[in-house]
Every structure is written in structure tokens, then in C-alpha cells.
């Protein structure tokens, strides 16, 4: 089942999401539907708040980015093999490395892309879909996608990292998204 993506302006995107337990109703179906929704929307990550669920759950498939890099780009991410992973109740343990720019976009903020600076590495503690605990460090593009999706479960958006002048320059686009005046090739839901 493909869920509609929650558009910028919906309050769920600004809430800090809650941890869940293994008894969360329909969790396995929810995860399967999140993967389906993410791929149908041509995304590389999707967080539960983006489908109107304020829970600490997100999925990441950075394999598709790594696999599609040009040969000369692969040298920029030598240690990043990519992942396809479910993250439940994730919490950042540490971040490290120099901040570097990458042109980010978001399914909830269509037609807006901007350079965002983030650290090179993130260490995360989470449980998987069987509620087995994990802790690992990710780098490169994979770390970037994780930081982006993690922000969603903390009520943040990539545009929050932009300088005020950039925010003013995209204000019209953001207002249009909030009003539903945007055309995308995936299902969206707008806050009225």
C-alpha cells in the first residue's frame, strides 16, 4: 500500500516522534508499506512522520545512490558501501568529521533542493524490525541520508539548516507547498 506523503506545513513534521514497542499495531505491514511508498516516490529514505505517524521509525536505502555514482564520484565515498535498513527508536550517539555540503531534497518539500552542511559520520543506536539492538557508525552519503531521516523523527527539516537569506529566497515555494500548489508524481497530503 502506498501512503500519501505529508507535505510541508503539516504539524506532524515538527513534532518529536515517540519510541515504539514491539506491540505497535501492524508494524511489519507499516514497514513494508513504507518501503513501497519510498520507492514509488523515488526516495532514498522515508520517516514515519512523512506518512503522518509520529513514531521513531525510518527506512534508508543508500545502496541505490552508491550504485549509481559515476566512477570519479566513487572516490569521494571510498568507505560507503550503502545500506538498506530499517531504523526503529533510533538515537544519535555521536557525530564526527568535518561538515560538508550536499544538495538535499525532501519528499515532503518537493521541488526544493539546497546545499546542507552535515558532519561526515554519525554513530547511531537503534533496534531493527525484530527489535534486535544495534549500534554502528555510518559515513559518506549513507550518513547524510541517516541524518536527514533522523531529523524527521526529531521534528526538523533540512531547510532548518539554511541561512536566513536562503530561507527568504525559497519562502514563496514553501508557501505554495503549504497551499497545495505543487505538482508531483506521487501522492501527497496537505494540511488544511
Automatic annotation (TrEMBL):
It comes from the Bacteria. Keywords: Hydrolase, Iron, Metal-binding, Protein biosynthesis. One of its GO terms (biological process) is translation. Its cofactor is Fe(2+). The keyword Repeat does not apply. Binds 1 Fe(2+) ion. InterPro entries: Peptide_deformylase, Peptide_deformylase_sf. SUPFAM superfamilies: Peptide deformylase (SSF56420). Signal peptide: none annotated. Fe cation binds at residues 106, 148, 152. The active site is at residue 149. One of its GO terms (molecular function) is metal ion binding. It catalyses: N-terminal N-formyl-L-methionyl-[peptide] + H2O = N-terminal L-methionyl-[peptide] + formate. It holds the Pfam family Pep_deformylase. Its EC number is 3.5.1.88. Removes the formyl group from the N-terminal Met of newly synthesized proteins. Requires at least a dipeptide for an efficient rate of reaction. N-terminal L-methionine is a prerequisite for activity but the enzyme has broad specificity at other positions. HAMAP family: Pep_deformylase. This is Peptide deformylase. The gene is def.
